[in-house]
Sequence to fold (196 residues):
Amino acid sequence: MHEDPALPTRRLRAGTTLAPAQPAQRPMVTRESAALLVMTDLAEVKAATIHSSASLRQVERAMMHQGVRMLFVVNDVPTLEGLVTTTDLNDDKHMRLVQQRGLGYDDLTVADVMTPLSMLDAIDYQRMATATVGSVIATLQRYGRNHLLVVEGASEKLPGRVRGVLSRAQIERQLGAPIEVSEHANTFADIVRVVA
Fold:
């Protein structure tokens, strides 16, 4: 039987510090770079989630705490109910709800402002494997989106799973330049046609 040697240790001294976290640096990209280079892969990074009953104040705090502008709405892990973005929080929709229902802002929940699953479409992961960053930017711009979802394993019979997120802010950081996107009302349904 082979016995592995124990490693030597040392006593820590006063003044020992903790190494600061260094988030993985994503590579700089160009419009011609592979689209997968700008995708946040949920197989590697835990998805930021929130329950549909959370208040809008809780959403704001969760987004700030996690450093994101979009949360997946999940009531029964891992089943997706929809998503909520900073755009949803700043939209006129919640003000109309406040007036219609005679409620206060603090009475509104994620369920009141989120985009439900039935309104979400996503780019197929297989399509992303051959797409460019330029195609992703064109899609964001054409449909006035700050985020795009990427789905894997979906078919007529299988719902698949959300594999990734494309974020305008992340692409801007990696590209080193701003992306002009005019937000307007469209569903994600048309997004697939641009990348296809």
Notes: The chain has eight helices and eight strands. Confidence is low (pLDDT under 50) at residues 185-196. Residues 56-66 form the longest helix (11 residues).
